[in-house]
Amino acid sequence: MPELPEVETVARTLRPQVLGRRVDGVALFRRSCVHPLSLPLETLTGRFVADVGRRGKVLLLHLEGPQADNLPDMLAIHLRMTGRLMVHPSDSPSGPHTCCRFALSLDGRDAGHLFFDDVRAFGVLFAGTAGLFRRWEFWRTLGPEPLALDAAGLAACLRGRRTAVKAALLNQKVIAGIGNIYADEALFRAGVDPRSPADAVARQAAAPLLEALQGVLRLSIEQCGSSIRDYRDANGNVGAFQNSFTVYGRAGQPCVRCGHPLERLRVAGRATVICPQCQKIF
Fold first, then answer.
1. What is the distance, to the nearest Å, from the Cα of residue 106 to the centroid of all Cα atoms in its chain?
2. Which of 111, 125, 146, 198 is close enough to 165 for a disulfide, judged by CB 3.0 to 4.6 Å?
3. Residue (of 199, 166, 168, 198) closest to 273 by Cα position
């Protein structure tokens, strides 16, 4: 599943292609991709894209236009495992995995169609007002953004939690946007064994873990994310951060710091790679 850096990259590459565009129509091919609480996607017609952003792993189209109680202020797109967003010419045919397409215009002229394609069909679209978003439990319970935290804030997120620190990092209610790749990479960089109790890390290693987490995320964003299988940005390009992995997917290979073979284990039900020499349990 695309994590924070991948969704941020999609937002940055999509923004110049849709900013200021008017939604002129919506063609929905897979109704199951629309969240049950969502307003009908047809209510997007006539709205303008004011900005493109992100919250955790969810891409956001901020909308503006005529004010009315039943018109959406935002379209949230959760790409999940295989979702892709790309703008194509208006005469481009829909593919077998096209869930939805949005007709766009700029100053009254055709500006192409925004396609949402999803091979696995796990992605979710949610068009809503601020009030509707507050009713969406997933949205309402999202934890803070890791790039906006300070060490005290991260310690507060982890404090009192007896679960493994990796489990806490993967919990979107604790911190938003972190998945398996960046949890493993950050914990290695901080020298923290992922099995360490989150509360112990909060008391003893919150600052180095935050520095590592933010450093890994920012480096990945600079390299346009990680492309393992399906991920592409809004221009169809792959990311490059997979070439910088220090532990993720490298079980059995030598540690980049000490040369000891990396070990694969399971933490929080997820495959995890660590260096038993460089990462300690707190």
1. 28
2. 198
3. 166
Beta carbons of 218 and 239 less than 8 angstroms apart = no
**Cβ atoms 20, 49 nearer than 8 A:** yes
Give tens-digit pLDDT for 61-115.
Answer: 999 987 777 899 999 999 998 999 999 999 999 999 999 999 999 999 999 999 9
Q: Which of 54, 57, 84, 101 is catalytic?
A: 57
- Of the residues 12, 30, 55, 270, only one is catalytic, namely 270
Span 235-256, pLDDT tens digits:
998 898 999 999 999 999 999 9
145 is catalytic: no
Q: If DSSP codes are grouped into helix, strand and coil, which group holds residue 118?
A: strand
270 an active-site residue? yes
- Check if 144 is active-site: no
Please tell me the distance from the alpha carbon of residue 111 to that of residue 24, in angstroms, as a whole number.
Answer: 10
CB 98 within 8 A of CB 110: no
Q: Extract the tokens encoding 103.
A: 């007709």
pLDDT for the residue 149: 98
With residue 132 as reference, give the H or E element that holds it. Answer: helix 130-135
Q: Active-site residue 40, yes or no?
A: no
pLDDT of residue 55: 98
Q: Indicate the pTM of the whole model.
A: 0.94
| Cα gap 207→204, rounded to integer Å | 8
